[in-house]
């Protein structure tokens, strides 16, 4: 009977049959695992609708649009599921203004008995749309089992999966011990200072023992942490003169060319040769890397409707922003010294070379221990749900774990969620519905392992 029912549910048979299987589950000796599995599969349509709704709220960052709207949507949903909620504005954090307030939501559902709290944290912001889309980036089209849109995999699909996991768990195990928290936070894509960092500074993780961040690291992987990052602006200086007599001035763009030459000849090969023991994916990120984020030199670009020609000037300023990602084996001082060493070298070898370097931000690498309780619990659930051992990885980019680790002082934190990492920030980003279902089963199983005695 059990086997027949499972088969009929897998085949997507009438929901009446599915509901009956839940009601009579225990009298047929069904295990809790199966009951929880069914409770999630029954919510498939709800999961799709929830994900689509979240994608349709365009929470673009920058500038940080519609944070209040998405928090209010989540507030209605989670109040309805029996959570107590708090909407928290991160006053005074970078980007916070009356026009673009940094709103966050934290929801908590207490259990019937004392115990650990598991916190699911998802960021609600998404990055710019960019070019190359073949579907509406905020249309939430469901095509062949995939929901498309900006933020579908990074990370509204993960947020939806964690909500469905919690709601299914609450239905099956209303008498649980401890507490479940779900947060939707701002600004992860720009550093998380108006989101998780603010919450951590204001004590929101004090009563939390386990944190799962449903970032899109793939449904069979536990992400233990991330590489570090160092961001800086470098400016080279010159002297303005008439463009027909460049020898009377000093071209800041050519000086920057020399900087880039040093990077190409020395820095990039040195970084590529370094390998980390961190299990970073994809493979290319197991070395140190650097992106030249932007370059601006000379006259400011005119608006598109300007029809004039440029004036003839030697540029006296050129600026780049560098985005240097480093390994747990490197220190921030080494990273900084390597770049300034090259710049100082140019100062002694290149005539009239002068520069300034402004640090914009830095983040140290973060790695959770392989034996941490949340790691072991989620890994065991991945094996149970997917029938293969979990893979342990680290993320090439930083995410909000850094704030939970350093400000919240909580080491028992991982990223685990549905979605293909390589689709994040790309055109035609999507999330697979089956992947969300599977990862919701893993999350709900982890809730059961930790919160049900
Ligand atoms: Zn993300």
- Unique ligands: zinc ion
Question: What is the CATH top level name of the largest domain?
Answer: Alpha Beta
Distance between the termini: 28 Å
Content of β-strand: 15-25%
The chain-level mean pLDDT equals 93
Please trace the helix and strand order, writing H or E for each element.
HHHHHEEEEEHEHEEEHEEHEEHEHEEH
Rg, Å, rounded:
25 Å
Number of helices: 12
Instruction: Please count the beta strands (DSSP E, at least 2 residues each).
Output: 16
**CATH fold-type name of the largest domain:** Aminopeptidase
Strand order of the main beta sheet, please?
1-2-6-3-7-15
Known CATH architecture of the largest domain: 3-Layer(aba) Sandwich
What's the domain count? 3
Q: Give the CATH superfamily of the largest domain.
A: Zn peptidases
Family: Belongs to the peptidase M20A family.
GO molecular function: hydrolase activity; metal ion binding
Protein name: Succinyl-diaminopimelate desuccinylase
Pfam family, one: Peptidase_M20
Descriptive terms for the model:
453 residues; alpha/beta; Aminopeptidase; Alpha-Beta Plaits; 3 domains; 6-stranded mixed β-sheet; 4-stranded antiparallel β-sheet; disordered N terminus; binds zinc ion
Describe the protein's architecture and organization.
It is a single chain. This protein has 453 residues and is an alpha/beta fold. The protein has three domains: 30 residues, no CATH class; 282 residues, Zn peptidases (Aminopeptidase); 122 residues, 2-Layer Sandwich (Alpha-Beta Plaits), CATH 3.30.70.360. It contains twelve helices and 16 strands. The strands form four sheets. The chain has a six-stranded mixed sheet with strand order 1-2-6-3-7-15. Strands 10-11-9-12 form a four-stranded antiparallel sheet, covered by helices on one side. A hairpin with a 2-residue loop joins strand 4 and strand 5. Helix 3 runs antiparallel to helix 12 and helix 10 packs across helix 12. The longest helix is centred in the middle third of the chain and has 22 residues. It is elongated and about 85 Å long. The N terminus is likely disordered. Bound molecules: zinc ion (ZN). The site of zinc ion has 6 residues, from helix 6.
């Amino acid at each position: 009977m059990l086997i027949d029912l499972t088969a009929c549910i897998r085949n997507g048979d009438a929901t009446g049959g599915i509901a009956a299987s839940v009601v009579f589950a225990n009298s047929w000796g069904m295990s809790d695992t199966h009951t929880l599995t069914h409770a999630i599969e029954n919510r498939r349509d709800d999961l799709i609708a929830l994900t689509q709704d979240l994608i349709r709220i365009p929470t673009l960052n920058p500038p940080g649009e519609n944070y209040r709207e998405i928090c209010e949507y989540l507030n209605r949903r989670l109040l309805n599921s029996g959570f107590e909620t708090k909407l928290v504005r991160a006053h005074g954090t970078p980007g916070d203004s009356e026009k673009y307030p940094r709103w966050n939501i934290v929801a908590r559902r207490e259990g019937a008995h004392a115990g650990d709290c598991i916190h699911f944290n998802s960021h609600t912001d998404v990055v710019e749309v960019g070019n190359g889309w073949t579907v509406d980036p905020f249309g939430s089209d469901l095509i062949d089992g995939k929901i498309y849109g900006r933020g579908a995999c990074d990370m509204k699909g993960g947020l939806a999966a964690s909500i469905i996991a919690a709601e299914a768990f609450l239905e099956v195990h209303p008498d649980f011990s401890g507490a479940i928290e779900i947060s939707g936070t701002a600004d992860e894509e720009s550093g998380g200072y108006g989101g998780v960092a603010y919450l951590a500074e204001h004590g929101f993780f004090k009563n939390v023992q386990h944190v799962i961040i449903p970032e899109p690291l793939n449904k069979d992987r536990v992400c233990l942490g991330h590489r570090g990052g160092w961001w800086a602006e470098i400016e080279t200086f010159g002297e303005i003169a008439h463009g027909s007599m460049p020898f009377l001035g000093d071209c800041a763009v050519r000086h920057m060319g020399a900087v880039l030459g040093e990077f190409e000849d020395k820095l990039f090969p040195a970084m590529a040769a370094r390998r980390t023991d961190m299990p970073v994916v994809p493979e290319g990120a197991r070395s140190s890397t650097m992106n030249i984020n932007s370059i601006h030199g000379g006259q400011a670009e005119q608006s598109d409707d300007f029809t004039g020609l440029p004036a003839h000037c030697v540029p006296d300023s050129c600026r780049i922003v560098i985005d240097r990602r480093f390994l747990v084996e490197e220190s921030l001082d080494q990273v900084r010294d390597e770049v300034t060493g090259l710049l100082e070298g140019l100062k002694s070898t290149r005539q009239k070379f002068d520069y300034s370097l402004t640090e914009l931000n830095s983040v140290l690498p973060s790695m959770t221990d392989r034996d941490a309780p949340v790691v072991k619990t989620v890994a065991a659930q991945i094996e149970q749900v997917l029938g293969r051992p979990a893979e342990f990885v680290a993320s090439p980019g930083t995410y909000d774990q850094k704030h939970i680790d350093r400000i919240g002082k909580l080491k028992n934190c991982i990223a685990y969620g549905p979605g293909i990492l390589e689709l994040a920030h790309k055109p035609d980003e999507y999330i697979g519905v089956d992947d969300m279902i599977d990862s919701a089963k893993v999350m709900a199983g982890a809730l059961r392992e930790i919160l049900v005695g």
